[in-house]
């Protein structure tokens, strides 16, 4: 068996996004993320202020939250308001879930319009991540989401929420996203987040070699 090469835990994100997550869970996650050396910690919008206080002003791990999570079936202005509010509470990155119907309606302006509304609500230097729910999309649909994300100035594209029945992060989805970013000459400016990850070190190495910049998961126990 070929053993996985070591990789940096700074390329990981510890996600605490369960519906029943509490302040205590967030406090434990921040402590665990610091212990592991994670690059970021992701919490629900209602717990951003708590996470910010537990971080005590530290920029690392980066504080990430969500908008339109997990279904994406929210009005664009609601997603934008949720994102703006989270940044005001201390979030440095907001990951917005796309409306799958808009993502599947190739040629429609709905997806671009939605993402632009959120981007305008949280301008740089706040990071905007677009969650594509890749396992529920065809390859052309996924590529279209990547293209739309680049057009609106997104900083990162994530593979999944981890809540959709179609599945989470996959090597193939990361490869498609990476290939489309190369086509758009955006591979150096836009990250890829393998979200909903649940695997071991070898699987992490495989997904990073496919093009992932960040691995995000609820436990990350298989990586330690």
UniProtKB/TrEMBL annotation:
<dbReference type="InterPro" id="IPR013785">
    <property type="entry name" value="Aldolase_TIM"/>
</dbReference>
<dbReference type="GO" id="GO:0005737">
    <property type="term" value="C:cytoplasm"/>
</dbReference>
<dbReference type="Pfam" id="PF01791">
    <property type="entry name" value="DeoC"/>
</dbReference>
<dbReference type="GO" id="GO:0016052">
    <property type="term" value="P:carbohydrate catabolic process"/>
</dbReference>
<dbReference type="InterPro" id="IPR002915">
    <property type="entry name" value="DeoC/FbaB/LacD_aldolase"/>
</dbReference>
<dbReference type="InterPro" id="IPR011343">
    <property type="entry name" value="DeoC"/>
</dbReference>
<dbReference type="GO" id="GO:0009264">
    <property type="term" value="P:deoxyribonucleotide catabolic process"/>
</dbReference>
<keyword id="KW-0704">Schiff base</keyword>
<keyword id="KW-0963">Cytoplasm</keyword>
<keyword id="KW-0456">Lyase</keyword>
<dbReference type="GO" id="GO:0004139">
    <property type="term" value="F:deoxyribose-phosphate aldolase activity"/>
</dbReference>
<protein>
    <recommendedName>
        <fullName>Deoxyribose-phosphate aldolase</fullName>
        <ecNumber>4.1.2.4</ecNumber>
    </recommendedName>
</protein>
């Amino acid at each position: 068996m070929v053993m996985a090469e070591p990789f940096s835990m700074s390329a990981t994100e510890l996600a605490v996004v369960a519906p029943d997550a509490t302040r205590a869970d967030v406090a434990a996650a921040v402590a665990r993320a610091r212990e592991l050396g994670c690059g970021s910690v992701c919490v629900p919008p209602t717990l951003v202020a708590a996470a910010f206080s537990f971080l005590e002003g530290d920029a690392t791990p980066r504080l990430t939250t969500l908008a339109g999570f997990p279904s994406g079936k929210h009005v664009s202005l609601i997603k934008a308001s949720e994102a703006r509010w989270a940044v005001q509470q201390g979030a440095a990155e907001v990951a917005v879930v796309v409306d799958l119907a808009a993502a599947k309606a190739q040629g429609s302006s709905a997806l671009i319009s939605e993402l632009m509304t959120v981007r305008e609500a949280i301008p740089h230097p706040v990071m905007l991540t677009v969650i594509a729910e890749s396992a529920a999309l065809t390859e052309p649909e996924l590529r279209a989401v990547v293209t739309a994300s680049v057009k609106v100035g997104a900083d990162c594209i994530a593979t999944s929420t981890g809540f959709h029945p179609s599945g989470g992060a996959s090597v193939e989805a990361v490869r498609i996203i990476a290939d489309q970013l190369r086509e758009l000459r955006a591979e150096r400016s836009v990250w890829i987040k393998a979200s909903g990850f649940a695997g071991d070190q070898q699987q992490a190495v495989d997904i990073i070699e496919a093009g992932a910049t960040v691995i995000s998961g609820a436990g990350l126990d298989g990586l330690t």
